[in-house]
Amino acid sequence: MFAIFLTPAYAPFAIAFVIMVGIGLIEAIGLGLGHLDLDADVYAETDSGVLDWLGLGHELPILIWLTSLLGCFTLTGIAIQQGATALTGGPLHWGLASGGALAAGSLLNTLAANGLARIMPGFETSVISTDDFLRRRGTILEGTARRGSPARAKIVDQHGQAHFIMVEPHDDADVIATGETALIVRRDGKLFYALPDANALLQSI
C-alpha cells in the first residue's frame, strides 16, 4: 500500500506529508524547549475578505495554517488519485492531480483553519514599546540619579514584566536616591527623565 506513495503520481502528496510532519516536529521541539516563538502572525495589506476566505482572518499562526493546508492537500490528493484509480484503473498525472488537490484542499483548509481559530486561544503579546514607559513610575536601584549622572531604575509594565532603564531627573535641581520612586516623563534615546515622587506637583497623582 505504502509503495504507491513512492510513485510519481503520488509524489507531490508524499512530499507535502513529509513537510507537514517536519513542521509538526519543529513545533513540538519548540514547545519542549520553552515555547520557541516559531509562529508568525499574518499582517498584510490584503482585503480582510480574502484573508477570511483563506482562513487567515482570525490571527491563526501561519505555521498552524500551513500545516493544515498541507494536510488538506495531502488528503484530497490521495482521494483524487484513489478515485481516479477506481474509475479508470489508474491514477491521474501528478500535475493534474496536484492542481485539483490544491483547489479542493484550499477549500477544505478554509473550514479547517476557521475551526482551529475558534478552539485555539487568541493571540496575546506582552511586547511593549519603550515609549510605553512614559507616565509610569520607576524605582532607583543603584546610585543616585542627578542631572548628567543617570542611575539604573526598574519599571514594571502592565504585564508584570520588569524593565531596567537609565534615569536622570527632569529638573536640574532634583536628586533621586536609591530606593526612591519617580514618574518617567520623557525619553531621549535610551535615557529617560523623571520627576521624583517627592516633587510637590506629583503628590496628587
From TrEMBL:
Record's superkingdom?
Bacteria
Q: Which UniProt keywords apply?
A: Membrane, Transmembrane, Transmembrane helix
Name all Inner membrane protein YqiJ N-terminal domain ranges: 12-104
Transmembrane found in the keyword field: yes
- Give the residue spans that cross the bilayer: 12-33, 62-80
Database matches in InterPro entries: YqiJ_N (IPR048376), YqiJ_OB (IPR010840)
Q: Does the keyword Cell inner membrane apply?
A: no
Q: Give the Pfam families listed for this entry.
A: YqiJ_N, YqiJ_OB
Every copy of the Inner membrane protein YqiJ OB-fold domain together lies at 135-194
Q: This protein is called what?
A: Uncharacterized protein DUF1449
Q: Which organism is it from?
A: Sphingomonas aerolata
